[in-house]
Amino acid sequence: MTAPASQAARPVLDTVENAEATPEEAQPYGELGLKQDEYQRIRDILGRRPTAAELAMYSVMWSEHCSYKSSKAHLRKFGERVTEEMKRNLLVGIGENAGVVDIGDGWAVTFKVESHNHPSFVEPYQGAATGVGGIVRDIISMGARPTAVMDQLRFGAVDHPDTARVVHGVVSGVGGYGNSLGLPNVGGELVFDSSYQGNPLVNALCLGVLRHEDIHLASASGQGNKVVLFGARTGGDGIGGASILASETFEDGVPAKRPSVQVGDPFMEKVLIECCLELFGADVVEGIQDLGAAGISCATSELASNGDGGMHVDLDDVLLRDPTLNAGEILMSESQERMMAVVRPDKLDQFLAITGRWDVETAVIGEVNGSGRLTIDHHGQRIVDVDPKTVAHEGPVYDRPYARPEWQDGLNANGNIAAGLARPGSGDELRETALRLLGSPNLASKSWVTNQYDRFVQGNTALAQPDDGGVVRVDETTGLGVALATDANGRYGKLDPRTGAALALAEAYRNVATVGAEPLAVTDCLNFGSPEHPDSMWQLVEAIEGLADACQALSVPVTGGNVSLYNGTGEPGQIDSAIHPTPVVGVLGVLDDVRTALPSGWRTEGLSVMLLGTTRDELDGSAWADVVHGHLGGLPPQVDLDAERSLAALLVAARKDELEVAAHDLSEGGLAQAVLEASLRFGVGARIALEGVTGRDKVDPFVALFSESTARVLVAVTQDHEGDLIHLADEYGVPALRLGVTGGDTVEIEGHFEIPLDEARETHEGTLPGIFG
Amino acid sequence: MGRLNSARIGVVTFPGTLDDRDAARAVRLAGGEPVALWHADADLRGVDAVVLPGGFSYGDYLRAGAISRFAPAMSSVVDAARGGMPVLGICNGFQVLTEAHLLPGSMIKNDHLHFVCREQTLVVANANTAWTNEFATGQRITIPLKNQDGQFVADDATLDRLEGEGRVAFRYDGWNPNGSRRDIAGITNEKGNVVGLMPHPEHAVEPGFGPAGADGPHAGTDGLAFFRSVLASLVGA
């Protein structure tokens, strides 16, 4: 095939010179997503109109996705509320590809959660697959070996006709890509709610491990250093609005319409991981950046603006999958599995030898210089000449209007008591309620999903789903490792986004402590509606406030993350115009020996089952209100961060003293769900008495069983350690009481009901396979 | 081959191999010396046995194992295996062995069409191979299983021959996780030096990180015996 572009001796390009000569030429900035004032600002920065290629770069880099223009002003709070004490374990904070946390003995970990929501609705398999691919490359870019992944998934209602399409595609995509990379999937979230219909959320988290001295950063320094693009070739996939630039503006007669969802090649990514690790090991990389959103535009402008000089790039040297691509398309292409490195000239041969050994195609496309500018040539003509900082870092920042939604008060006033939701009273009713929750799609066993993911690869997985956190060994000689948990309850977020975000942190923090790890750091993925709607913007601002305050209170810093906006398709101003506010919060903790991490259930008889924490009548937004009554209203459970902090300290101390043999956090579905899950974990039942809780906390059996009060954990201890645990709990100021004893093949709530484990298992495990096959 | 701890076990890395580091760890924990072998290098570096680990070599884009079998390292492995060197193919490695015609049959997509990851119980059907001599025939073991293309298929004549000659090394116990013919999880060649299986012994070698075992969750180490077996067979050789 002969490329039409090459038929012309010298294609007519929109050069810098041409842009200067034709200031009045109309440009399609609106179609590229730029507002009139943003376009004017680009003209002001450049002192002329942008070339078509420059317009392409600015438009993608100033997009919400790349520039965080609506959230930036608020996200600063995460940094502002980080105290010196919180920084003590931080090696790299917010702003790089991912944060890096010191875990001791010279080891560090890097982790981040990111969204790939919109592509996953359009093309669920590739959207989810490339979501995993993107976050893994962020982790490689820090110099780390990717070590584990987790996925946080939210879909529409289980019974909606479109949901199965998205579920099957996303789950196979996460699995197909992650399994092929050899990354154990150690946990995640799976939620069905009609608010996500049409706006599913696919968030993916990756953990990486490195030695302190191996940290790499995205900066292009050192004049004369080479800019190297390696990995997959650049193709026409993943170009959004850029195709508008094609055909009309520069090279006529070129096919321009291509799929806008990227297509992943996990094999290429796996090779790229190993290749990059060998490059790092050989010390031939000065700076590195992965290519994700906005492709070469993003990588060149970020590398150049983080460096100390300028950069020149020649687009003719970019290896193309499709030779007909024009300059704007090459700059905006989001072809996957590509990396950009800055390499010293004397190390270039060694660099090329390593990429050659891995059969990874590599091209030197430019050089670092002292110009302070990012210049790009195509076909020998200058098509970009910009200050890279204006592209990468100095995009617009908006203080979007936000206001408490008009419907919020009504929602909050309509709690479960005000709404008159009938509460079960008799033993039979309580039993039926427990089983309905246990088998409901959001509380049912997730193994239909997790059994499609490899959790064994790398041989370092100490705990994975359904335990409270994923636990991964870092150091084979000592057993040092980390625990990870993520959480977000969108229903709580809807009722009160500020509290909802704090509760998401509280639960992830509690989960990490429940397995016995000391919580150290946070990553977050803020999934919200349109920032142009004051309702959604208010939810975002409230959630950021709530999360920043809670991080400070728990002394765990946010190290990085991602914001996904425009997750809404409804009429603005309505209660259902967007998804539930879903601030996914991931907490990382450290364990001196991962083999001592606690599973979420007991496997022997005769253990004492203890409840830590206090139960209140808190059932607004609960699983009970949702599953039994289809109701959402009122206010979420109280968040008590002092109580969470004491509880976590107790759990870490108890694990170190080897007092407990199992621990499981109480969350959705309350105590009933927790006892059933802990019993099903290894098929050993329990006999539980509620009198201790109902008497001490002044609640009835229904509240004791189904309330979602926070800062509560169920633990199992051998009887000879019962006194020690109560003593230790007292020291930490955590209420503790004995609920009962493990054993038998039923869960018995004394005086109320009994459920055989076989029946519970069938209910719990049958749901998702029954719906999705 | 004299002393046990001097046995050198090669682990081949193809582009897309995932479990090479796990296989090397398993060799080390069993008391052998793991030796990294590279697909593009025909030199087997004087190893006494070879493991072809799991993964998705070349992305499995053509047919699992179909490209890897042409690697220079594989030519040497095929020659060495025909000369009696012990070779173990795990998952993708098993697929490579069938493509290389060191073992009969082939693997197709699982009958339920999903990737499956589970703790799998197997029955040892032949404890007389280089890789299974530390087991007893009929013994039940549990090791992880994880694959997308794990359904072992062959024509009836081949299956009859495999069964008749005692060359079925492992069968799935209970649920057959991928629709494999006659519940076959692993097979051996006539000499018993080449063994291929879909489940992963290298993920069940260390307490704390494997499948459930008698001593609790993650405590299972049934995979270790594969690697101890080969060391024992090398000492005996």
Q: What report would you give on this structure?
A:
The complex is a heterodimer of chains A (about 775) and B (about 240). Chain A has about 775 residues and is an alpha+beta fold. Helix content of chain A is about 35%, strand content about 20%. Chain A has 27 helices and 26 strands. The longest helix of chain A has 21 residues, at about 535-555. Chain A is globular, with a radius of gyration of 27 Å. Chain B has a single domain (about 1-235), classed as 3-Layer(aba) Sandwich (Rossmann fold). Helix content of chain B is about 20%, strand content about 25%. Chain B has helices spanning about 20-30, 70-80, 90-100, 155-165, 225-235; strands at about 10-15, 35-40, 50, 85-90, 105-110, 115-125, 140-145, 150-155, 170, 185-190, 195. In chain B, strands 2-1-3-4-11-10-9-6-7 form a 9-stranded mixed beta sheet, sandwiched between helices. The longest helix of chain B is centred in the C-terminal third of the chain and has 13 residues, at about 225-235. Chain B is globular. The model of chain B has no long low-confidence stretch (mean pLDDT about 95). The interface of A and B includes residues 172, 271, 452 and 453 of A.
What's the main sheet of chain A like? 7 strands, mixed
Number of helices of chain B: 5
Architecture of the domain at 14-69 and 217-392 in chain A, according to CATH? Alpha-Beta Complex
Helicity of chain B, as a percent range: 10-25%
Q: What portion of the residues of chain A fall into strands of 2 or more residues?
A: 15-25%
What is the CA-CA span between the terminal residues of chain A? Answer: 45 Å
Unreliable segments of 5+ consecutive residues of chain A: 1-9, 241-257
Protein name (chain B): Phosphoribosylformylglycinamidine synthase subunit PurQ
Catalytic activity (chain B): N(2)-formyl-N(1)-(5-phospho-beta-D-ribosyl)glycinamide + L-glutamine + ATP + H2O = 2-formamido-N(1)-(5-O-phospho-beta-D-ribosyl)acetamidine + L-glutamate + ADP + phosphate + H(+); L-glutamine + H2O = L-glutamate + NH4(+)
Organism (chain B): Myceligenerans indicum
Keywords (chain B): ATP-binding, Cytoplasm, Glutamine amidotransferase, Hydrolase, Ligase, Nucleotide-binding, Purine biosynthesis
